[in-house]
Amino acid sequence: MRDPSFRRSLALFRAFTREQEDPAAAYTLLARDAADQVERYVPLKGKIVVDVGGGNGHFTREFRRRGALGYLFEPDAKELGEGQQVQRARDTIVADGYLLPLADGVADVTFSSNVLEHVADPHTFLSEMARVTRPGGLIYVSFTNWLSPWGGHEWAPWHYAGAERARARYERRTGSPAKHRLGENLFRIGVGPTLRHVRGRTDVDVVSARSRYWPVLPELITRVPGLREFATWNLLLILRRCS
Ligand SMILES: C[S@@+](CC[C@H](N)C(=O)[O-])C[C@H]1O[C@@H](n2cnc3c(N)ncnc32)[C@H](O)[C@@H]1O
Q1: Of 3, 51, 60, 155, which one is least surrounded by beta carbons within 10 A?
Q2: Ligand 1 pocket test, candidate residues 28, 32, 92, 118, most atoms within 8 A of CB
Q3: Domain that includes residue 222, residue range
Q4: How many domains does the chain have?
Q5: For 229, which DSSP code?
């Protein structure tokens, strides 16, 4: 599907709302969409693609389906799920994104979807992605910023009323413990500060900064201070590793 377009955004939104009932369909669509986004810049066939914090590997599987040598790096064995045979899968490595067990410049593409808001030190995380990317290689990073309507994850949109209050409300309503706790495995990350940070880096060039899902003018939204913190929803950065 064409990016951006209303059709694509609607399909992704529908899949997102049905994620609990049909996670396979939702993640397959999301993975195809992300792979299409990468292929706007570089064909995946034959490329070494490193997926950092890749969860159960739906993106890595899609990259492999398209002929890439995809490798999944995920620190939490539980996130890998039953489908992944952690011990045996040669393309799956239990590893932290802060310290990837890779030599400098080995990857043609490094990819990270919805991980940056879950790390306490996103700058070090980005440095490690840049380190393992070859000069001229592509870095795909997307994250849900804190002031996005989905910033509070399972307790959104009540995070606007305060993280602890939102979390307590979620637990009261559902009777289940919330997965995320602010300052532990979810962090306040902003669009503006992140853009200033990446633009100031000397190891990467910013190729594109856009709303990942927005159906119109996805790059324009990220240029409007204030509004971008609420309307971007999910910031997608396409970076190029400098020589
Ligand atoms: C919301 S999930 C996203 C999973 C997948 N990338 C996706 O977009 O569906 C966040 C992932 O980040 C991983 N994560 C958290 N801290 C990390 C770190 N320091 N290095 C690498 N991954 C990390 C978690 O284990 C989890 O799998």
Answers
A1: 3
A2: 118
A3: 6-146+187-241
A4: 1
A5: H
Other C-beta atoms closer than 10 Å to the C-beta of 31 total: 20
Q: What is the best residue among 28, 115, 127 to mutate for testing ligand 1's pocket, by most ligand atoms within 8 Å of CB?
A: 115
Q: How far is Cα 124 from Cα 119, in angstroms, rounded to an integer?
A: 9
CA distances from 205 to 127, 210, 227, 241 (A): 13, 15, 24, 7
* Domain presence at residue 161: no
Assess if residue 16 is contained within a domain: yes
Three-class SS state of 43: coil
Residue 159 identity (one-letter amino acid): H
Task: Note whether residue 166 is domain-resident.
Answer: no
Q: What is the CATH number of the domain that holds 74?
A: 3.40.50.150
Spell out the per-residue pLDDT of the chain, length 243, in tens: 899 999 999 999 999 999 889 999 999 999 999 999 999 999 999 999 999 999 999 999 999 999 999 999 999 988 987 655 444 577 899 999 999 999 999 999 999 999 999 999 999 999 999 999 999 999 999 999 999 999 999 999 999 999 999 999 999 999 999 999 999 999 999 999 999 999 999 999 999 999 999 999 999 999 999 999 999 999 999 999 998
